[in-house]
Amino acid sequence: MSDEADDLYDKYIDYDGRDLDTRNVGDGKVVRPITAENFEMEKRTLGEVLTDQKFNVPEYQRLYSWKNIHHEQYWSDIEQFVNADLVADRREVSDVFFSSMYFAVNDDKQVYEVIDGQQRLTTTHLLLRVLMEHLEDVDPASIEDDTLAEFRDYGIGRITDILYVEEMFGKREPRLTLNKHDAEFFKALMMGPSAQVDYLKNEADFSIHGNNSDAVQVSECLDRFGTTDDELADLDTDSLSSGAFFKLYRSHRRLLNAYEFYDEKISGVVADAETPDETVRALVNILNYVYNSYHVGEYLIREAESDFRMQIFEILNDRGVDLTKIDRIRAAVVNAFFDTDVKDEYVDKWEDIVVAFATDGDAIDDYLSIYLSIVDDGIDRIGDASAELTNAFDTRNIDSDVVPRLRNLDEAKAFLDYAHDLVDYYQDITTTELAADDLELASHREQCREILVRLNNQQMDQWRPFVLALYYHTNPESERDAAQFHRVLETIEKLNLRRLLISERPSIFREVFIEAVEEFNLAPTAEATPDSVYEASREYLITEMRSSTPTLFGDRFVDTVVQTQSWSTGTARLLFGKIAQDHFDDSSRAVERDLNMGNIHLEHVLPQTPVSDPEDPTWLREFFKLDSEPDIEIASEIERYIELVQRSDLDEEEERLKDNISEFITQGFIDDIGNFLLLRDTDNIGASNRPLAEKMTQYYSEIDGFASIYPNRYFTAEYGNVDRDSLDKLREQHDGGDVSNVDADVVAYFNSFWTYETLQDRRIELLLDILSTLGFDSFEDEFGIESDQDEVRHEIREKTDQEFEKRLSVRSL
């Protein structure tokens, strides 16, 4: 900075009126005391509030919830100060009214219970920690101004006094303690590398799959903590695997994000300094500005009963403090048990629920809504349950049909007991990383796991209240119960797959599953369910859905499915996955059982980009048989499309025509059910847009077990229409997918194999598979397949031929 600069890098702002040897300016010369002189209330500087007592965030308070938008607002006042011209008597920057803060305090204790203000208080501690770390990074020997060297040490000492207290035997602890969920992680952030390693070794929850959105690697977390390799070298990390994943709760993630936000901002301030002296001067000026020029309206509640503190908290909520639904429920639970002998037990049960969902408020809301829809007869839909949660977790009923469950201690205990008990069951049926061993279902664990994984990928959650309630009542040791539970899951999945196939919304199920809970008395408070509940509930679901949505059944269902074009890839993927799992045999059991929804994808035989090389439009010429005097109306339009693709000088009308034909090809053929294959690899194969001869080499060499996946059988020599000799030659002669050495007649055979006619043939067989897979054994041959499969195939062929006659006509464009 130049000698003439007037900013926080150049001058020390003196709040104490001392005689200093370094360049300085009195605070009254540059800071306008608007708040100090005009705010009529008992006020203190933030620095006064932060010292002389410890702070504790009580259990009923929310978790740390500030996001980036809040930090930007918080930093904006400091940013104005950083960018101001600190010319004497100009006073371009003002002091700040920081906020009102409410504390409860007993006079015989030096601990403030934070009733309101914990988000700002926590954030300020994180900012000060960052400031201290940057001051500590300045080498004292590099500072030329002796007074600034003293200010560096003074700044570090002042922050230390604010952030920490000395306990017995000189042990230092954070002055601020957050609530149970956030306390240990916040302490690790505030205490530095040794505490951070101890947290990861002793407190972190490693029972999480790496694919989970809440999972983070140890190495990444240590890097985000700012822990250096030299610091780690001095610590005991032998039992800590850097590649291991642990659960980083949402509130912990926000604390870490806040730390990184202010570290980035302060690093920017340091980067703009040209010398160590300027760095110290800037950092200490920011510290003193926050300490002295931030004013707080402090409200103290002394010697108050616990219920009065809760009243204050609730009043602040009603006045618009931005608390989430889960924050309010937490406060209500703590209040319900506050002065009871079982307070710790039931607050811990609530905390177990919160931890089970990694403090994710939305996930907790989802679970509690499912739970409430099971136990309260006044709930008809899951969405209604979500809207009524705060009424259920209350002591009185105001304009709601939902029963308030915290009216007395016994009701509150029972309500929370069952909510706590059902968490594990709920996670069993909903987790995306579900393992068969997680399920308490005798020898049917794997079969049930497969269906549950697919159900959780089927765009609806209406089934969850019924399945959760039934699972809770299922005897985990009973083979019969497990088998019957599996049959119920099959029924639910078939109903939902039928829904997807006729493009109905999930709302068609919005009441039937909750009504089934009531119909069969499946609430957790019920006695053991009768053996007949499984069969009876299956029949109930089918009967109710047949009555309310008849298009899911019989000929109307078949007609709709046969006429469907532009199939959803998500639906097709689920269907193919189910068909594949339903058709494994003993010889391929190991292969098929490895087919899970997390590592499969749909492959388009006719590619999504059918003309990847305009000079070689092989796919369209072969698929529509353009080189063999085609007898389809659309042939001339396909020729026209190829010509348009090969040109680069299209006018607006020609571009529109090209797009229209492209959309026609996609909807009528590329996205038809007959054009899909099921592959295990999570990524598309490298030759996905290449002619079929090249793709077939990868289907059989790169995609393990391609031929064992039942929906792919049409492309096998054993069960499909592929010529065995041609397939053997292709596999023997290709070189890593390169077919230039393969006999020309073999390449020509495969490139011409897939046409609109073969797509129709395969489509018919797949539709038969779908009807067979989705049939209910309680119906007597619903689709006629058991009595005369050839006749059903003939009917499907007739309807398919009619459908494709329309698709292949010019009228379709």
From TrEMBL:
Domain GmrSD restriction endonucleases C-terminal stretches: 573-724
Locate the transmembrane regions by residue number: none
Which residue range or ranges hold the GmrSD restriction endonucleases N-terminal domain? 47-332
Q: Which Pfam families match?
A: GmrSD_C, GmrSD_N
Query: What is the superkingdom listed in this entry's lineage?
Result: Archaea
Q: Which PANTHER family match?
A: DUF5655 DOMAIN-CONTAINING PROTEIN, SLL5132 PROTEIN
Protein name per its UniProtKB record: DUF262 domain-containing protein
- Tell me which species this is from: Halosimplex rubrum
